[in-house]
């Protein structure tokens, strides 16, 4: 069972990483990031069950909360950028302008 | 049965993650991510963490996915173009939502999650509560504050753009 879980974790993390690297739309990059966070959560929950450690489960609980906050901030920034008429493409967004 | 459910959940998660990477449409990617999140909830349940599985469905598959779909709708192209690019065949989309139910049915037919009964689950959850609110209380408070600030930034940004 452990090998299968690690395999699934690796596949999901690699898929998220590929999406983060290859796709240039900001929303698609955010989706890839969420996938990577979920892959890490799977491995943490499995390891917590394996070692009987409740701290792993508590860490996953905190990670879920932080990921929700990250999604809220990221999506609101993307929407603000869209409202300001800016592009939603990471290729175009290269410079920080004051 | 638990091994079969684990295999189905793993295959389903890997399949929809691959589909998510390959699709060009953001809507299809969001639907695939939703299917992956449901499979991850089943994996949490199989690993003996039903509370986390519940929170995964509530927070990720519920709240965060609604935010993502609304953001795609607000920032995306016109409605006609958006839906014409939704190229996910309906049997695949239906499988994404029916697969978790099939896996839960398999687990229930076996007699619950593999890690034990309700007593053990409650004991683990009370230990998690102890870790969160005693030894790591500062981190828990910090995360709560972060969530509050994230909500506040969303509301203040909306007010500023309206005013």
Class by SSE composition of chain A: mainly alpha
Radius of gyration computed on alpha carbons of chain B: 19 Å
Can you give the mean pLDDT of chain A? Answer: 87
CATH class of chain A: Mainly Alpha
> What pattern of helices and strands is seen along the backbone of chain A?
HHH
Radius of gyration of chain A: 17 Å
Oligomer: heterodimer
Kindly summarize this structure in a few lines.
Chain A has 98 residues and is mostly helical.
Can you describe this structure?
The complex is a heterodimer of chains A (98) and B (163). Chain A has 98 residues and is mainly alpha-helical. Chain A has a single domain, classed as Helix Hairpins, CATH 1.10.287. Chain A is built from three helices and no strands. In chain A, helix 1 runs antiparallel to helix 2 and helix 2 runs antiparallel to helix 3. Chain A is elongated, with a radius of gyration of 17 Å. The termini of chain A are far apart. The longest helix of chain B has 26 residues. Chain B is 85% helix and 0% strand. Chain B is built from seven helices and no strands. Chain B has two domains: 114 residues, Up-down Bundle (Four Helix Bundle (Hemerythrin (Met), subunit A)), CATH 1.20.120; 47 residues. Chain B starts with a helix and ends with a helix. In chain B, helix 2 runs antiparallel to helix 3 and helix 6 crosses helix 7. Chain B has 163 residues and is mainly alpha-helical. The chains are: A mainly alpha (98), B mainly alpha (163). Chains A and B meet through helix 1, helix 2 and helix 3 of A and helix 1, helix 2, helix 3, helix 6 and helix 7 of B.
């Amino acid at each position: 069972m452990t090998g299968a879980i690690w395999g699934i974790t690796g596949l999901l993390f690699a898929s998220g990483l590929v999406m983060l690297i290859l796709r240039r739309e900001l929303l698609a990059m955010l989706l890839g990031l969420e996938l990577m966070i979920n892959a890490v959560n799977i491995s943490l929950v499995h390891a917590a069950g394996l070692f009987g450690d409740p701290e792993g489960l508590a860490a996953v609980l905190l990670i879920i909360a932080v990921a929700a906050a990250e999604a809220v901030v990221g999506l609101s920034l993307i929407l603000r950028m869209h409202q300001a008429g800016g592009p939603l493409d990471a290729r175009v967004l290269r410079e920080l302008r004051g | 049965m638990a091994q079969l459910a684990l295999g189905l959940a793993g295959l389903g998660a890997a399949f929809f993650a691959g589909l998510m990477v390959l699709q060009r449409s953001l809507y299809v990617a969001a639907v695939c991510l939703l299917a992956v999140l449901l499979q991850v909830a089943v994996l949490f349940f199989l690993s003996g963490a039903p509370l986390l599985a519940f929170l995964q469905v509530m927070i990720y598959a519920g709240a965060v996915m609604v935010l993502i779909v609304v953001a795609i709708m607000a920032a995306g192209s016109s409605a006609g173009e958006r839906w014409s690019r939704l190229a996910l065949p309906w049997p695949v989309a239906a499988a994404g939502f029916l697969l978790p139910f099939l896996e839960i049915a398999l687990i229930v037919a076996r007699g619950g999650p593999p890690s034990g009964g309700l007593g053990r689950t409650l004991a683990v959850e009370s230990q998690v509560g102890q870790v969160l609110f005693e030894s790591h209380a500062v981190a828990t408070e910090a995360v709560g504050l972060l969530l509050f600030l994230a909500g506040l930034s969303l509301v203040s940004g909306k007010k500023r753009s309206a005013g």
